[in-house]
Design brief:
- The chain has 16 helices and 13 strands.
- It is an alpha/beta fold.
- It has 2 domains: 7-186 and 357-373, Rossmann fold (3-Layer(aba) Sandwich), CATH 3.40.50; 204-355, Rossmann fold (3-Layer(aba) Sandwich), CATH 3.40.50.2000.
- The strands form 2 sheets. It has a 7-stranded parallel sheet with strand order 3-2-1-4-5-6-7, with helices on both faces.
- It is globular.
Length: 374
């Protein structure tokens, strides 16, 4: 079925406008999929909570239209009013899609008002992750659970990144299995690839991600403290940075806090490392890990939700317990064994090429759009 007359509207998360993606260094990565989808469709529009400053990205988006918050409303208010404020372009569109669950109700309300099908993408279980982070059930968690269920149960199609999330949706929210499609996160395998001209630095261990509690970084620092000659490089920023810097100093760990690095510079940083590590307590479908594997990196990940969906133990990387001892043992093994690093890195690259290439994900996205538009 041709999609030549289909106009897709993407609703960004409630408080994550394009300018935040730019600040995080992931704008090009996030819009790559829609640039690839655009030639197959009549048009694409993006609804963002950002103000007129969002128009600064118009040239980079090409003819993808930006529907911005020209009224400069607070994100929560805008999330409720956007279906009415952008009445005409939403009425003229064909299909709505959300980027994540946070703010998905905007697309659902718009779908009800304008009688359009809605695809709700759930890259991670929003309510479950909030509960994991707080460790207790709170009023806010119950509100998130209600908003999550409201959005999911009114979607024409739910898109998740892993089989585990598909099971979560069918059990937790009673979504019929046929309404839940799996579309993994993608990686640009032309950008993220082995770079023969970049030589790994001896003992360099790399982490890429937000510096927050779910990433289990105090435990990683303790693990690296056990390893002679290891140099930990942390790319990313977040609320734990001051605490982590102090802890690294107290443990005597050689650690570099590099801050945020643009996505296009990450391949070189990954290729300079002997080991890439993701020590999280839980994940959705970790893009940083997939990008490292695409570069042919030898990866270590904790044996937890999200990571075990990506790493095949002893085949494409090493899984370990989320403890300092477990991480230290796995990292040490890779630092010592160059042949193992090469074998796992080659297998990881091949696996990503087969499962997570941008081209493959574009094909899946187009298939879902055809199904929903029938």
């Amino acid at each position: 079925m041709s999609l030549a007359n289909t106009h897709l509207v993407l609703f960004l998360s409630r408080a994550t406008p394009l300018c935040r993606w730019e600040k995080m260094g992931i704008l090009e990565r996030e819009i790559a999929l829609y640039k690839c989808l655009r030639p197959h469709l009549a048009g694409i529009s993006i609804v963002t909570s950002g103000g007129p400053e969002e128009l600064a990205y118009q040239e980079r988006l090409g003819d993808i239209r930006i529907l911005y918050n020209r009224w400069r409303l607070p994100p929560n208010a805008y999330s409720l009013l956007a279906p009415f404020l952008h009445w005409r372009p939403l009425r003229e569109a064909t299909i709505y899609k959300t980027n994540q669950l946070d703010g998905a109700w905007t697309a659902v309300i718009a779908g009800w008002v304008h009688r359009k099908p809605v695809i709700v993408r759930a890259g991670y279980p929003w309510a479950l992750n909030f509960r994991r982070a707080t460790g207790q059930e709170t009023l806010k968690e119950r509100l998130i659970q209600t908003l999550e269920r409201f959005s999911l149960c009114r979607a024409s199609r739910v898109v998740v990144t892993t089989e585990q999330l598909q099971e979560y949706m069918t059990i937790q929210h009673a979504i019929p299995p046929e309404q839940v499609s799996i579309v993994p996160n993608y990686v640009n395998i032309q950008l993220f690839c082995p770079l023969p001209e970049v030589l790994p630095e001896s003992g360099r261990v790399l982490f890429v991600g937000a510096l927050k509690s779910a990433k289990n970084l105090p435990t990683l620092l303790k693990a690296v403290a056990y390893l002679d000659g290891a140099h930990l490089v942390l790319i990313g920023d977040g609320p734990q940075r001051p605490t982590l810097e102090a802890r690294a100093s107290s443990l005597g760990v050689k650690a570099t806090f590099a801050g945020r690095v643009p996505n296009e510079r990450l391949p070189e940083e990954i290729n300079r490392a002997e080991v890439f590590v993701l020590p999280s307590l839980y994940e959705g479908h970790p893009k940083a890990l997939i990008e490292a594997m695409a570069c042919g990196a030898a990866v270590v990940g904790t044996d937890v939700d999200g990571i075990r969906d990506v790493i095949r133990h002893e085949e494409t990387g090493l899984l370990c317990p989320p403890t300092a001892e477990g991480l230290a043992q796995a990292i040490s093994r890779l630092l010592i064994d160059a042949d193992l690093r090469k074998r796992l890195g080659r297998a990881a690259r091949k696996f990503v090429e087969q499962e997570y290439s941008l081209e493959r994900i574009v094909t899946r996205e187009l298939s879902i759009l055809r199904e929903v538009s029938r």
